[in-house]
């Protein structure tokens, strides 16, 4: 078990900057997710930690050992890391047992020791009875578990996962999430997880490193990231959000597109951008901060997804399911914003107003 | 609404069935007509079918002559004179016929003439006489003939009157010209000569009857009795064009009719199966291809096998027994198998690490090496053999000399001797390993790199990963590449003929060529040996394609990540040096030797010795008309084969990739078989079947060469196109179809452009080996169809080494340029 | 943009192909039989053919003469194939192996013609019935490279060529299966020395290859001495200033008076025997023989003092001639070939 330190890492491919000034420390036993849209550089970072790419500048340490720097480079096979690939990379010409045993046979352990360890991990991933099967006989989920077992068998210090669940169907994805998290907690391994699925990241991580265009936007716990996003990108990427531009004048917020105003207790002045979480807007037929008209609503089973027009602005509201039946398009409704996030138009968080009802 | 739709559908279905029915009738008609023609032809005793064509033309000419000259002149003669004339003519005719056949012909002649009376009798006799005299008998002196036709019409009329008078006995004084002619004719009696002169000078043009057809008839009908039949047919009058068509092309028609009929049957079967009676032009295209393959590939090969087992019509193993108990042949067999197997092993052993180094590591100068290694594929093997002779002959070979110097071995011959089985294997390996290299490279590129990365992260070093993961996963491709090398090495002729023969190392291919030089019996012996090669090739191909291919692990990656380059670390420089050494030995030294030799006068001296440097060889190449002709031929034949081939390849790849027709593997197998069949065998088969016995006579033409190339090299292009099509998703085409485009349009506007780089690559892959091909051309060439490869062989054998080296290097430059062109067009995506 | 370019390129290539094909005319066999065409099959070297074609063009401007060049073996195979169909593909033949003329005459393929004063004109035998006449003399000798070896070290006879063991692996000769002159030579040698001669050749590891390869080996020193036609050596000497020299074996040179034959009219390609006769007569004329000399071969005309470049007096060679039994050469051709193959080309 070890920590991972990344200092001042830069990387570019063919004159395109892929990662810029990456600085992070991952503590021992932490479950950290590198999250971001496709092409943001998260996989590249992961591969650099694994040793498949070399950073242009900067250094990477695993525990106390420098594995990548200007002067030294430790090849992947010497880093003692486990990795699970998106395409599973399970070898088709070997049985499940041989696949999982491979890291140990490389270390030239005795046959009995190998057998013991393999059975141990197969147990963990619930694949004991498939030991003698060939990968082509297994489903996608089962192959993924083989990959996981193989990554864990040599008791690595660090486990890297590169979008391991993106090839599985929705239900399986959900259940595997919990399994992986559970294994990690049980074994206490440091995990670096790469994904573009924010729900996955939120569910599993101790900490999320949000990356966009090669630059780290924010590195914090899921809650922190969700409640206090550092800029519009962060707000947008996690959860649902509605953006609204406006101006602060005379102590009130004047959103564009409507005459109605909102209360404001902060020090800012001038143009701002308002970010609202739809599920933190309350809908009422009696009173509220803003008055508007229901435009449409969709029944999603557990919630109602509504659109309310205030002036010329559309607000998205996630309301309790009954709203679908009680309110109709054209009805007059009132909105109360339980939480407002304010950003400069250039995106930095200045103020937060939270009203609890 | 539904009813209407059904109606429309039914109508088109009915239309289709009607068309098919009509076509079936047509094909049956063809077969029947062709068969009738064949029977007629067989009964006629003619040597060539086109005898009928000449008869028709002569008939027409004679009819004209009769109407224009004979009849009016006969009428002008008066009954008595005419009848005397005709009597003389009858005598002459009879004597000619009897002379020709050596038999008594009067009854036959009388029988023929008895049917006609009066005017008709005169007509028949005249025509018979005209044609008989023109065809047989010595030619009349040309100078006199010319002078006759340069007379004015009045003079000519007078001349003919005089002739007539003399013939019928009315006069004795000949005109000058006639007298001169008589004087020249030493043996024939005067009347005969005059009569012949009379017939020969009829009409207005310089020749009474067209010489072309006269000669043609002479050649087409040689047997004297058959000739007489031909005369009778000519006199009978023109055969109508339609009949003549069937008569003179009977065999071709029958064959085409049979193929057509078979096609229609298949088509109907397909339609019945899929229950869709709509004319699908795809099937027509595909059936045409199958026809082509059947006629030009299956037929010759089957014929060969038949000839070997039935040399005189009876099934016998005699030929094989005799051939295979002859020690020299057994020796050849042994050598062929050993050399092919060894080449396969060494070639693959070489190719795999090279492919891995060049494709997956950070070797210095990878791209350079990649092009370099593939270069030997572009050189005629013949050339390489020549060079290795120079370098490794035991007495004064350059490399041997160097080795002797380094190791202080004194003056004894050796240490390396090219004239041995080992030498043969060495040269074969250096020439055929690129085939394995290319196959393995391709497969390696397609392999999912994460499989190797997973191994690395599991703690295995690069080397271990290579051995335990990469190698096992690549095994199917390795085997495929190895088998390819085996088949190529086994079918090679150029290299064993240069290296093996002096060292008494014979292979089956050299024996076949030697037998081929021994006349008719030799040809069937050659066939017997060829069958061995063919059977072996088929067996191996079957193994490779249908057994090994099944075991292919699907390893094409999903995400398009760059395959991780293996860092060779401290081994980087040593390995690069090793690889460079290999490149130098196998490629640079030979090529440089060729270049240098091409500029020497005295091969034994260094090119820098006084007076030894010359560019005359190069000048000769560019100035000799024959070389330029050969170049033109090579380009044309190669281009033709490549173009036709790529069309076929496209059709085939569509068939294989986009349809589920049963039996679509058959044409594929045939095509693969074609490429696996040794060139010599293909050529032999074509020679024996394409001389007209089966109605197709393309012997000694460019067509037979192009077809041979096509059969041999089609597969290369096809594989290229097939793999490209397999990577283009079918949804792209489906989208086009939904938008309303016809199949042809989809092919040309959607699929075509998408796979165009592969099409271009496939075109070149067929073109280049055709360009310098040697083995088949040696057997199939004629004066006007010599190619560059053959010219090289001639230079090597009959001219001089420097000359042939210049030629070889020239070819190499051309091929490299073409490859560069290919590279440019496909933006580096496809180089061979 | 790229697609357009590719399309245009494909179109261009197709266009080019079709143009070339139509221009080539595809070499179809069925030519128009206009008078004035003659097809000659010959194994004379291409450079000599070029010379002859030029001269013939001058001499017979209205004649369209085509030469087909092939080694003797190739021609014999081609002709064998054509014989099966009953017509040959040529009108005249100039083939190096004289015995072949005997064979063709006996099988009735030839056309007889008269040459004026043949008995005084020629110094080599000709067919009394007029079916073939010699037009050139090929001379089989030994050759060596004086720059590397002196003549004293080398064999002076054909006998030594095979039996001298110091030459093992250092000698070379042509392939009797493909070369008519080599075939004649081994017939003569087996005549004189029996089939044991072949065995000796085999023991001496003689290499069987083409003349040009052998010459190159002389130059590099890979071979010490080779059996080759004198004309090849003379050509090297004249055109490339080479030092390679001939040894005129003391047990006899092997002279091969190669013949000209005209195919019987009925069986020939263009049925133009008149023209063929004229050509043959021209070849026997002074002009024709001059050409032969320029092509490094000896003249068949009696009383000709001139020799090809640098060679020895022809009459002297005739005196030294080993002599070939041509009848045997053709009657026992198979046997001679087989014996040769077995002794010489197998380990």
Tally of DSSP β-strands of chain B: 0
Percent of residues in helices of chain B comes to: over 70%
Strand content of chain C: 5-15%
Provide the CATH architecture of the largest domain in chain C: 3-Layer(aba) Sandwich
* Top CATH class of the largest domain in chain B: Mainly Alpha
Please name the fourth-level CATH homologous superfamily of the largest domain in chain C: Periplasmic binding protein-like II
Distance separating the two termini of chain C:
64 Å
Number of domains of chain C: 2
Biggest chain contact? B-C, 77 and 79 residues
Shape of chain B: globular
Sheet of most strands of chain C = 9 strands, mixed
CATH homologous superfamily (4th level) name of the largest domain in chain B: MetI-like
* Series of H and E elements of chain C: HEHEHEHHEHEHHEHEHEEHHHHH
Structural class of chain B: mainly alpha
Seen as an oligomer or otherwise, the chain set is heterotrimer
* Number of discrete domains of chain B: 4
Mean pLDDT of chain C, to the nearest integer, reads 82
Q: Judging from the principal axes of the Cα atoms, what is the shape of chain C?
A: globular
**What level of helicity do the residues of chain C show?**
40-55%
In CATH, the architecture of the largest domain in chain B is Orthogonal Bundle
What topology does this entry show?
The complex is a heterotrimer of chains A (357), B (832) and C (347).
Chain A: E1 4-13, E2 16-26, E3 31-35, H1 42-50, E4 57-62, E5 65-68, E6 81-84, H2 96-106, H3 111-124, H4 140-152, E7 158-162, H5 170-187, E8 190-195, H6 198-204, E9 207-212, E10 215-220, H7 222-227, H8 232-237, E11 242-249, E12 252-255, E13 262-263, E14 270-276, E15 281-284, E16 290-299, E17 304-310, E18 313-319, H9 323-326, E19 332-337, E20 339-344, E21 349-354
Parallel strand pairs in A: 3-8, 3-9, 6-7, 7-8
Antiparallel strand pairs in A: 1-2, 1-4, 4-5, 9-10, 11-12, 11-14, 12-13, 14-20, 15-19, 16-17, 16-19, 17-18, 20-21
Chain B: H1 2-44, H2 51-77, H3 79-101, H4 106-114, H5 119-135, H6 142-149, H7 153-167, H8 176-184, H9 190-200, H10 211-220, H11 224-236, H12 241-248, H13 250-274, H14 281-309, H15 318-325, H16 327-360, H17 366-375, H18 381-392, H19 398-407, H20 421-446, H21 449-457, H22 462-491, H23 494-500, H24 508-516, H25 519-548, H26 572-598, H27 616-623, H28 625-658, H29 665-676, H30 679-689, H31 702-727, H32 730-738, H33 743-772, H34 775-780, H35 788-798, H36 801-825
Helix pairs in contact in B: 1-13, 2-5, 2-10, 2-11, 2-12, 3-5, 5-11, 7-9, 13-14, 14-25, 14-28, 14-29, 14-30, 15-25, 16-17, 16-20, 16-22, 16-24, 17-26, 18-20, 18-23, 18-26, 20-22, 20-23, 21-22, 22-25, 24-25, 25-29, 25-30, 26-36, 27-36, 28-31, 28-33, 28-35, 29-31, 30-31, 31-33, 32-33, 33-36, 35-36
Chain C: H1 2-24, E1 37-42, H2 46-59, E2 64-69, H3 72-85, E3 92-95, H4 98-106, H5 118-121, E4 132-144, H6 158-163, E5 171-173, H7 180-193, H8 196-203, E6 207-208, H9 211-220, E7 225-229, H10 230-240, E8 245-247, E9 254-262, H11 273-284, H12 286-294, H13 314-320, H14 326-331, H15 333-344
Parallel strand pairs in C: 1-2, 1-3, 5-6, 5-7
Antiparallel strand pairs in C: 3-9, 4-7, 4-8, 4-9
Helix pairs in contact in C: 7-15, 8-15
């Amino acid at each position: 078990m070890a920590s991972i330190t990344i200092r001042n890492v830069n990387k570019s491919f063919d004159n395109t900057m892929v990662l810029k000034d990456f600085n992070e420390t991952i503590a021992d036993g932490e479950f950290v997710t590198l999250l971001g849209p496709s092409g943001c550089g998260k996989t590249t970072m992961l591969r650099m930690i694994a040793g498949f790419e070399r950073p242009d500048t900067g250094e990477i340490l695993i525990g106390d050992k420098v594995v990548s720097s200007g002067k030294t480079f430790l090849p992947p096979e010497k880093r003692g890391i486990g990795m699970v690939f998106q395409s599973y990379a399970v070898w088709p010409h070997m049985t499940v047992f041989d696949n999982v045993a491979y890291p140990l046979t490389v270390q030239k352990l005795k046959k009995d020791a190998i057998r013991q360890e393999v059975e141990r991990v197969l147990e963990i991933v619930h694949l004991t009875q498939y030991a003698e099967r060939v990968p082509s006989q297994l489903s996608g989920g089962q192959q993924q578990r083989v990959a996981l077992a193989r990554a864990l068998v040599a008791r690595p210090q660090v486990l890297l996962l590169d979008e391991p669940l993106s090839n599985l169907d929705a239900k399986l994805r959900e259940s595997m999430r919990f399994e992986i998290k559970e294994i990690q907690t049980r074994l206490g391994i440091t995990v670096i997880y790469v994904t573009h699925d924010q729900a996955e990241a939120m569910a599993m991580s101790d900490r999320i490193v949000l990356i966009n265009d090669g630059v780290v936007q924010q590195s914090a716990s899921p809650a922190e990231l969700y409640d206090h996003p550092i800029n519009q990108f962060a707000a947008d990427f996690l959860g649902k959000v509605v953006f609204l531009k406006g101006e602060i004048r005379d102590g009130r917020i004047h959103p564009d597109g409507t005459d109605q105003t909102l209360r404001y207790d902060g020090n800012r002045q001038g143009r701002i951008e308002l970010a609202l979480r739809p599920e933190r807007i309350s809908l009422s037929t009696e009173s509220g901060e803003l008055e508007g008209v229901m435009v449409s609503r969709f029944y999603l089973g557990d919630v109602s997804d509504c659109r309310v027009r205030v002036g010329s602005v559309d607000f998205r509201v996630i309301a309790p399911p009954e709203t679908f039946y009680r309110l109709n398009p054209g009805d007059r409704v009132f909105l109360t914003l339980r939480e407002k996030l304010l950003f400069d138009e250039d995106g930095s968080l200045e103020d937060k107003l939270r009203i609890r009802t | 609404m539904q009813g209407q739709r059904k109606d429309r559908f039914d109508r088109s279905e009915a239309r289709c069935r009607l068309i098919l029915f009509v076509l079936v009738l047509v094909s049956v008609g063809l077969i029947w007509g062709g068969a009738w023609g064949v029977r007629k032809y067989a009964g006629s005793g003619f040597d060539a079918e086109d005898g009928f064509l000449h008869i028709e033309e002569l008939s027409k000419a004679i009819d004209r002559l009769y109407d224009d000259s004979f009849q009016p002149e006969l009428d002008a003669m008066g009954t008595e004179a005419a009848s005397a004339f005709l009597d003389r003519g009858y005598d002459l005719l009879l004597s000619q016929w009897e002379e020709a056949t050596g038999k008594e012909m009067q009854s036959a002649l009388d029988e023929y003439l008895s049917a006609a009376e009066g005017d008709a009798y005169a007509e028949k006799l005249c025509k018979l006489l005209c044609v008989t005299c023109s065809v047989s008998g010595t030619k009349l002196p040309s100078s006199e003939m010319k002078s006759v036709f340069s007379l004015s019409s009045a003079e000519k009329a007078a001349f003919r009157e005089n002739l007539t008078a003399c013939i019928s006995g009315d006069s004795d004084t000949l005109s000058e010209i006639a007298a001169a002619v008589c004087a020249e004719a030493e043996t024939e009696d005067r009347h005969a000569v005059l009569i012949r002169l009379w017939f020969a000078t009829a009409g207005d043009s310089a020749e009474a009857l067209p010489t072309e057809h006269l000669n043609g008839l002479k050649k087409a009908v040689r047997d004297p009795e058959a000739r007489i039949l031909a005369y009778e047919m000519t006199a009978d009058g023109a055969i109508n064009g339609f009949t003549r068509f069937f008569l003179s092309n009977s065999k071709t028609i029958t064959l085409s009719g049979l193929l057509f009929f078979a096609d229609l049957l298949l088509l109907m079967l397909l339609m019945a199966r899929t229950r869709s009676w709509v004319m699908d032009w795809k099937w027509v295209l595909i059936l045409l291809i199958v026809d082509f393959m059947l006629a030009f590939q299956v037929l010759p090969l089957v014929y060969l096998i038949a000839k070997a087992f039935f040399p005189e019509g009876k099934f016998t193993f005699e030929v094989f027994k005799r051939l295979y108990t002859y020690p020299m042949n057994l020796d050849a067999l042994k050598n062929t198998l050993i050399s092919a197997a060894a080449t396969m092993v060494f070639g693959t052993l070489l190719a795999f690490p090279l492919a891995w180094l060049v494709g997956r590591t950070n070797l210095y100068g990878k791209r350079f090496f990649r092009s370099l290694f593939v270069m030997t594929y572009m050189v005629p093997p013949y050339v390489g053999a020549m060079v290795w002779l120079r370098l490794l002959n035991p007495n004064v070979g350059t490399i041997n000399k160097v080795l002797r110097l380094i190791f202080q071995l004194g003056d004894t011959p050796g240490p390396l001797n090219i004239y041995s089985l080992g030498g043969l294997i060495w040269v074969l390996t250096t020439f055929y390993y690129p085939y394995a290299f290319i196959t393995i490279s391709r497969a390696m590129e397609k392999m999912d790199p994460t499989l190797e990365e997973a191994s690395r992260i599991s703690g295995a070093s690069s080397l271990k990963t290579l051995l335990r993961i990469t190698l096992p996963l690549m095994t199917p491709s390795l085997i495929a590449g190895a088998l390819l090398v085996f088949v190529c090495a086994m079918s090679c002729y150029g290299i064993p003929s240069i290296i093996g023969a002096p060292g008494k190392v014979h292979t089956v291919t050299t024996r076949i060529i030697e037998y081929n030089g021994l006349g008719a019996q030799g040809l069937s012996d050659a066939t017997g040996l060829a069958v061995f090669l063919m059977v072996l090739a088929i067996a191996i191909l079957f193994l490779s394609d249908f057994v090994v291919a099944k075991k292919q692990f699907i390893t094409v990656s999903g995400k398009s990540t760059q395959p991780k380059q293996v860092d060779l670390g401290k081994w980087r420089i040593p390995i690069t040096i090793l690889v460079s050494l290999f490149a130098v030995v196998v490629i640079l030294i030979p090529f440089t030797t060729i270049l240098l030799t091409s500029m020497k006068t005295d091969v034994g001296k260094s090119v820098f010795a006084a007076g030894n440097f010359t560019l005359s060889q190069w000048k000769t190449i560019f100035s000799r008309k024959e070389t330029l002709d050969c170049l033109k031929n090579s380009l044309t034949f190669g281009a033709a084969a490549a173009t036709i081939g790529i069309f076929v390849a496209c059709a085939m790849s569509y068939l294989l990739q986009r349809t589920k027709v049963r039996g679509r593997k058959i044409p594929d197998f045939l095509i693969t078989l074609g490429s696996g069949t040794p060139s010599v065998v293909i050529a032999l088969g074509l020679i024996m079947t394409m001389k007209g016995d089966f109605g197709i006579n393309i012997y000694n033409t460019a067509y037979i060469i192009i077809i041979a190339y096509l059969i041999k090299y089609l597969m290369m292009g096809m594989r290229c196109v097939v793999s490209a099509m397999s990577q283009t998703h079918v949804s792209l085409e489906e989208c086009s179809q939904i938008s309303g485009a016809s199949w042809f349009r989809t092919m040309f506007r959607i699929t075509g452009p998408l796979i165009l780089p592969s099409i271009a690559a496939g075109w070149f892959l067929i073109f280049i080996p055709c360009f310098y091909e040697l083995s088949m051309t040696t057997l199939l060439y004629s004066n006007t169809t010599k190619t560059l490869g053959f010219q090289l062989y001639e230079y090597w054998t009959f001219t001089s080494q420097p000359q042939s080296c210049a030629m070889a290097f020239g070819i190499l430059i051309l091929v490299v340029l073409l490859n560069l062109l290919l590279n440019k067009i496909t933006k580096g995506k496809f180089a061979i | 943009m790229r697609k357009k370019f590719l399309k245009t390129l494909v179109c261009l290539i197709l266009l080019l192909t079709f143009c070339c094909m139509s221009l080539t005319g595809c070499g179809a066999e069925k030519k128009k039989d206009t008078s004035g065409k003659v097809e000659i099959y010959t194994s004379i070297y291409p450079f000599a053919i070029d010379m002859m074609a030029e001269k013939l063009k001058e001499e017979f401007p209205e004649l369209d003469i085509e030469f087909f060049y092939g080694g003797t073996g190739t021609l014999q195979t081609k002709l064998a194939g054509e014989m099966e169909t009953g017509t040959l593909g040529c009108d005249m033949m100039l083939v190096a192996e004289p015995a072949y003329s005997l064979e063709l005459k006996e099988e009735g393929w030839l056309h007889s013609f008269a040459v004026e004063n043949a008995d005084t004109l020629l110094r080599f035998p000709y067919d009394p019935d007029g079916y073939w006449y010699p037009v050139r003399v090929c001379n089989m000798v030994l050759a060596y490279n004086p720059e590397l070896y002196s003549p004293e070290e080398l064999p002076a006879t054909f006998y030594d060529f095979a039996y001298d063991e110091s030459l093992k692996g250092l000698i070379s000769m042509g392939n009797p299966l493909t070369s008519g002159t080599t075939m004649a030579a081994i017939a003569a040698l087996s005549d004189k020395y029996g089939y044991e001669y072949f065995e000796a050749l085999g023991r001496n590891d003689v290499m069987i290859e083409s003349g040009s390869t052998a010459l190159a080996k002389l130059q590099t020193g890979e071979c010490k001495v080779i059996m080759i036609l004198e004309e090849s050596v003379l050509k090297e000497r004249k055109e490339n200033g080479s030092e390679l020299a001939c040894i005129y074996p003391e047990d006899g040179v092997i002279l091969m008076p190669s013949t000209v034959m005209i195919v019987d009219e009925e069986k020939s390609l263009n049925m133009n025997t008149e023209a063929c006769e004229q050509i043959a007569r021209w070849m026997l004329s002074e002009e024709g023989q001059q050409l032969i000399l320029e092509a490094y071969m000896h003249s068949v005309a009696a009383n000709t003092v001139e020799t090809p470049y640098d060679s020895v007096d022809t009459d002297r060679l005739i005196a030294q001639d080993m002599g070939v039994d041509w009848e045997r050469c053709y009657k026992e051709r198979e046997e001679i070939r087989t014996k040769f193959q077995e002794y010489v080309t197998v380990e």
